[in-house]
């Protein structure tokens, strides 16, 4: 069984919602659509207060190259354009829309029939993906069309599709592969056509045998797409780790996967690409897992962007009494949120409600130099050293010890027997070193 | 026996001699001339090596001031006027008298003014918490209370008051600016110490509109500009929904303090007023007035913490 | 409902803990302890109890009155130090020497650096070497092992196999003559040779090592590189001149080789962090041990070899970095 070699951990999988079929969530009364949902520059609103919008109508334009269009997830009246709280409690500009009915743009093909024939050529596909505001749905929310623009002289050997879902608890990609497998594979073919590559590798961890079986069966109908079961190991969903696991190629430090002839996309993105290209449907809804040990009904919902997460929790039979922490994303890399008012955005893969007893950090002791963090680091760094030097403020050493290679997967802090907040300090060092490097480059 | 003795004496003697000659030439070659005044200046300086003057320690300061041959732009905040007079005497120059300054913490989001909405459970540095989230009270501009300023202070002049969770500056402050540098939210500022140590400042740096600011903190500056209107000296600047008192223009007349609806403007070391007794940490007693001002945005945040 | 807590990722922590690791090592030492008790009887129990109790006591005392930190004596590390200390001494050692050894091990070897995780040298070895140098006679009069309930009278002392070989070879005897006097390999492997408490049975120690490997308390790098390098290095001389140098298997099975390779060199605190560094560390120990055994003044060199390499650990840590992803 393939996997990446360096480091990695195996946290309890806790895929509680893996049997729950994707349900359509009822429309909320009001949606809050932040204009900064993607990696890169925030979009610029092009609607004003009081405007009537339809589902799928463009409401905010991309600003700059690395940015994305945002489309209205609902139909109704723009209530206002104002700042609202984001995941971390900071205020960000958003478009707030009061929902009235559910009127879609006529251009969107709402027929359930699967459209198999790919009519557009490579350039048209990339433009379409840009137009429909597709971003990477694995969590990084990098505008997808940018990834597809291959510079002259570079050849893409493999399109890699990330169906690993190595984060514990999350099941949205798993369900998508099961229920929308064929659509997703058409999406993969579209991406292959856009990239002009003949081979696509789909990596799936073997804790999802049903998804592997389903896709393997379906992939026979497509040319060049192969499904590869991978050994369960976190952080296999990391771009560099996945490329290593599937092709054995190692992306050089500080370089993009392009360097080794690979482009990585998430299965969710592939599905969104299918809908965008074949059905002309912009990205305004996504699958979100709502889960947690005390959640009465762990579920996977198809949710409109902008829906407050409290509605999702309500639909999963309510907010458990013992909730101590709400996490947007998975437990290894997700963000703790400050309130349930925050909206679902393009990058929200799951909402995890952690019971009180589990949510508090364990008391930390001194480092016993056991080297567990070194052995689990997928980037071959020495977390204990980075954390220690960052704590002492010796940022020159932090930089020299390659802190910028860190992918913040959290394996070190997860595995530390002394429960040291290693990643907190490493992140601190990374921020400071990033500043130092920026200052130096400016000079 | 004698032979051994002679060998030892001769060989060791020769080695010593050769080394001495080498050392002599090396010393000649690498001789560094240092202005003796640098040493003299350094002796006068307080040797705190705090960097408050803008140079890397007292030696660097001495080096630069001797090289510059004038006192312009040089000030040792630790030693103050007294030390600068001495430095001037050493260099045969006239010292510029700089107004003494002190660090001021411009946030009053104490536990009672800005109640905790969430519990932070990470490492105790503001630098990392300020990137992670807004703050326990919900204000994304306010003090995080984790004490990066305390760690940065070399003079034991700032500490976190456990009752309010906010840093307080005491009289040991030499205005070196280390805490100003350390604060990731730019809450701490150096201001004139003031006559009789009297100071007036806006104790809030929140740039949000009135309603959301007020929702998180009872004593937030809501940007109502009442103080701006009342100030006879044009010392108040309104920018980004908040007031700022220019300490160079402020004449300490206290008019702004009286009109502030949220008690965001603080006066320190003034005698008590006859009618209204104001304390430094004011409770949220003037909410009605605040709400009047904030009506336009009132509806904006119908959000409630769960 | 209490306040939601906010922290940076990761939000879950594995179920490793310092306590689990330390007590895991203690469990791994059980087979060897049982063998020691079997061969040395009540004396073994006495030495082990005194060593463990004294280590715990000194750890508690220093933590409470000198360092004034949180109590750490129950985290199991002092128990390990005590047990390893006992494993490194003869069973007939007077109780007060054991106590002094524990004081040096915990006081100087560990707490003077600031406690668990900060010591440079393996505490048990610091104690052991201190005793070896201060009380050479008591430390090198080993009782010959006698199985429990057997009828042999007490207090027969004799040298260890390594001592016999060393003395014999120094006296100019050939290897064959010397080897006739030492126990067979089988005996060395299963148990029953003279020596310190923990040295009598390689098998019991290997069992403990396998347990620790299974529980992921240690990694294979250090023990394997120590044993392999010692085997190859001594084997080289044996191939060149089998009449003057003993069989490499003999080197592996006798003295503190197994104990050192599996339990002492693998001490997390004083061994290197990166995998390649650990290999270098292990090879260093193997070479030094054999060097001391063949040419040194002492018949046994494991303790010194480990201590020397412990001292080099910070250097190894800066010189040998893990394989970085995406870099050469």
Describe the structure.
The complex is a heterotrimer of chains A (443), B (306) and C (328). Chain A has 14 helices and 17 strands. By secondary structure, chain A is an alpha/beta fold. Among the domains of chain A are: 158 residues, 3-Layer(aba) Sandwich (Rossmann fold), CATH 3.40.50.11540; 71 residues, no CATH class. In chain A, helix 3 packs parallel to helix 5 and helix 4 packs across helix 7. The longest helix of chain A has 21 residues. Chain A is globular and about 65 Å long. The model of chain A has no long low-confidence stretch (mean pLDDT 92). With 306 residues, chain B is an alpha+beta fold. Chain B has two domains: 55 residues, Electron transport complex subunit B, putative Fe-S cluster (3-methyladenine DNA Glycosylase II, Chain A, domain 3, Orthogonal Bundle), CATH 1.10.15; 196 residues, Alpha-Beta Plaits (2-Layer Sandwich). Chain B contains eleven helices and nine strands. In chain B, the strands form four sheets. A two-stranded antiparallel ribbon of chain B has the order 1-5. In chain B, strands 3-4 form a two-stranded antiparallel ribbon. In chain B, strands 6-9 form a two-stranded antiparallel sheet. In chain B, strand 7 and strand 8 form a beta hairpin. Chain B starts with a helix and ends in a 12-residue tail after the last helix. With 328 residues, chain C is mainly alpha-helical. Chain C has 15 helices and three strands. At the A-C interface, strand 15, strand 16, helix 9, helix 10 and helix 13 of A face strand 1 and helix 1 of C.
CATH topology category name of the domain at 122-279 in chain A: Rossmann fold
SS-based class of chain A: alpha/beta
What is the rounded distance between the termini of chain C? 52 Å
Number of strands of chain C: 3
How is the quaternary structure best described? heterotrimer
Question: Can you summarize the main beta sheet of chain A?
Answer: 6 strands, mixed
Helix-residue proportion of chain C = 55-70%
Shape of chain A: globular
Number of strands of chain A: 17
Please mark out the parts of chain A with pLDDT under 50 across 5 or more consecutive residues, or reply none.
none
Largest beta-sheet details of chain C: 2 strands, antiparallel
């Amino acid at each position: 069984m393939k996997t990446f070699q360096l480091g990695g951990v195996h946290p309890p999988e806790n895929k509680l919602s893996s049997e729950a079929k994707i349900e359509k969530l009822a429309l909320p009364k009001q949606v809050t659509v932040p204009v900064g949902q993607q990696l890169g520059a925030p979009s610029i609103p092009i609607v004003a207060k009081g405007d009537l919008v339809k589902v799928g109508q463009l409401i905010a334009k991309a600003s700059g190259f690395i940015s994305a269009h945002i489309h209205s997830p609902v139909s109704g009246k723009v209530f206002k354009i104002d700042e609202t709280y984001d995941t971390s409690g900071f205020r960000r500009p958003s478009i707030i829309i009061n929902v009235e009915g559910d009127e879609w743009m006529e251009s969107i093909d709402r027929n359930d029939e699967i459209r198999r024939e790919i009519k557009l050529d490579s350039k048209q596909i990339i433009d379409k993906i840009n137009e429909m505001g597709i971003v990477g749905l694995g969590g990084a929310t990098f505008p997808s069309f940018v990834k597809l623009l291959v510079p002259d002289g570079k050849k893409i050997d493999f399109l890699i599709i990330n169906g690993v879902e190595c984060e514990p608890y999350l099941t949205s990609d798993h369900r998508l592969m099961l229920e929308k497998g064929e659509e997703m594979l058409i999406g993969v073919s579209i991406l292959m056509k856009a990239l002009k590559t003949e081979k696509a590798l789909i990596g799936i961890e073997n804790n999802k045998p049903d998804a592997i079986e389903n896709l393997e069966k379906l992939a026979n109908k497509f040319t060049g797409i192969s499904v590869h079961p991978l050994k369960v190991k976190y952080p296999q969903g990391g771009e560099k780790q996945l490329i290593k696991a599937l092709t054995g190629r190692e992306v050089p430090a500080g370089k993009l996967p392009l360097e080794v002839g690979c482009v990585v996309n998430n299965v969710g993105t592939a599905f969104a690409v299918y809908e965008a290209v074949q059905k002309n449907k912009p990205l305004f809804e996504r699958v979100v897992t709502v889960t947690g040990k005390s959640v009465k009904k762990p579920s996977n919902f198809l949710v409109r962007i902008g829906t407050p997460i409290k509605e999702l929790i309500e639909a999963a039979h309510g907010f458990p009494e013992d909730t101590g922490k709400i996490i947007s994303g998975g437990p290894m890399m997700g963000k703790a949120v400050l309130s349930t008012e925050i909206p679902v955005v393009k990058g929200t893969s799951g909402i995890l409600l952690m019971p009180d007893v589990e949510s508090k950090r364990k008391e930390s002791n001194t480092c016993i130099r056991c080297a567990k963090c070194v052995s689990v680091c997928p980037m071959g760094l020495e977390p204990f050293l980075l954390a220690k030097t960052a704590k002492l403020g010796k940022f020159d050493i932090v930089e020299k010890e390659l802190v910028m290679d860190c992918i913040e997967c959290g394996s070190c802090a997860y595995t530390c027997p002394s429960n040291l907040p290693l990643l907190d300090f490493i992140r601190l060092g990374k921020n400071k070193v990033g500043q130092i490097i920026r200052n130096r480059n400016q000079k | 026996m004698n032979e051994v003795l002679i060998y030892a004496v001769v060989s060791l003697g020769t080695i010593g001699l050769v080394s001495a000659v080498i050392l002599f030439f090396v010393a000649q070659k690498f001789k560094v001339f240092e202005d003796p005044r640098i040493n003299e200046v350094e002796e006068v300086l307080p040797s705190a090596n705090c960097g408050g003057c803008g140079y890397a320690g007292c030696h660097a300061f001495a080096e630069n001031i001797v090289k510059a041959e004038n006192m312009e732009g040089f000030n040792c905040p630790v030693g103050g006027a007294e030390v600068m007079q001495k430095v001037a005497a050493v260099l045969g120059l006239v010292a510029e008298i700089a107004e003494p300054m002190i660090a001021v913490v411009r946030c009053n989001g104490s536990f009672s003014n800005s109640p905790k909405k969430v519990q932070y459970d990470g490492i105790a540095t503001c630098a990392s918490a300020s990137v992670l989230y807004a703050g326990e009270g919900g204000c994304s501009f306010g003090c995080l209370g984790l004490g990066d300023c305390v760690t940065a202070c070399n003079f034991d002049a700032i500490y976190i008051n456990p009752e309010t969770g906010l840093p307080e500056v005491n009289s040991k402050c030499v205005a070196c600016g280390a805490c100003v540098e350390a604060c990731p939210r730019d809450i701490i500022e150096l201001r004139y110490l003031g006559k009789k140590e009297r100071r007036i400042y806006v104790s809030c740096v929140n740039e949000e509109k009135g309603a959301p600011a007020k929702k998180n903190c009872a004593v937030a500056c809501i940007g109502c500009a009442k103080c701006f209107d009342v100030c006879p000296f044009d010392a108040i600047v309104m920018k980004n929904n908040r007031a700022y008192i220019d300490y160079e223009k402020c004449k300490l007349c206290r008019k702004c303090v009286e009109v502030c609806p949220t008690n965001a403007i603080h006066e320190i070391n003034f005698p008590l007023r006859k009618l209204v007794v104001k304390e430094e940490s004011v409770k949220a007693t003037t909410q009605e007035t605040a709400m009047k001002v904030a009506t336009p945005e009132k509806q904006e945040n119908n959000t409630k913490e769960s | 409902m209490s306040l939601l807590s906010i922290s940076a990722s990761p939000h879950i922590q594995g179920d490793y803990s310092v306590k689990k690791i330390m007590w895991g090592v203690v469990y791994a030492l059980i087979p060897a302890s049982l063998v020691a008790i079997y061969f040395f009887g009540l004396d073994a129990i006495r030495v082990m109890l005194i060593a463990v109790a004294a280590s715990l006591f000194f750890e508690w005392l220093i933590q409470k009155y000198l360092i004034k930190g949180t109590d750490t004596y129950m985290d199991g590390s002092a128990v390990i130090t005590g047990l390893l200390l006992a494993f490194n001494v003869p069973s007939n050692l007077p109780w007060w020497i054991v106590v002094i050894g524990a004081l040096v091990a915990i006081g100087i070897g560990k707490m003077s650096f600031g406690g668990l995780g900060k010591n440079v040298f393996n505490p048990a070895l610091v104690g052991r070497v201190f005793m070896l140098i201060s009380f050479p006679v008591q430390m090198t009069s080993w009782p010959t092992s006698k199985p429990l309930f057997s009828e042999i009278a007490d207090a027969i002392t004799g040298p260890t196999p390594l001592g016999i070989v060393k003395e014999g070879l120094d006296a100019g005897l050939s290897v064959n003559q010397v080897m006739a006097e030492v126990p067979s390999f089988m005996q060395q492997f299963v148990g029953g040779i003279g020596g310190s408490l923990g040295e009598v049975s390689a098998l019991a120690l290997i069992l403990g090592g396998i347990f620790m490997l299974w529980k992921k308390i240690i990694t294979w790098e250090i023990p394997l590189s120590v044993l392999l390098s010692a085997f190859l290095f001594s084997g080289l001389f044996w191939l060149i001149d089998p009449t003057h140098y003993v069989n490499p298997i003999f080197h592996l099975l006798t003295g503190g080789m197994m104990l050192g390779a599996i339990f002492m060199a693998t001490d997390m605190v004083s061994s290197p962090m990166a995998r390649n560094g650990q290999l270098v560390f292990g090879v260093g120990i193997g070479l030094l041990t054999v060097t001391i055994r063949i040419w040194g003044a002492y018949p046994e060199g494991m303790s010194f070899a480990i201590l020397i390499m412990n001292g080099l650990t910070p250097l190894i840590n800066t010189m040998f970095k893990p394989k970085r992803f995406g870099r050469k």
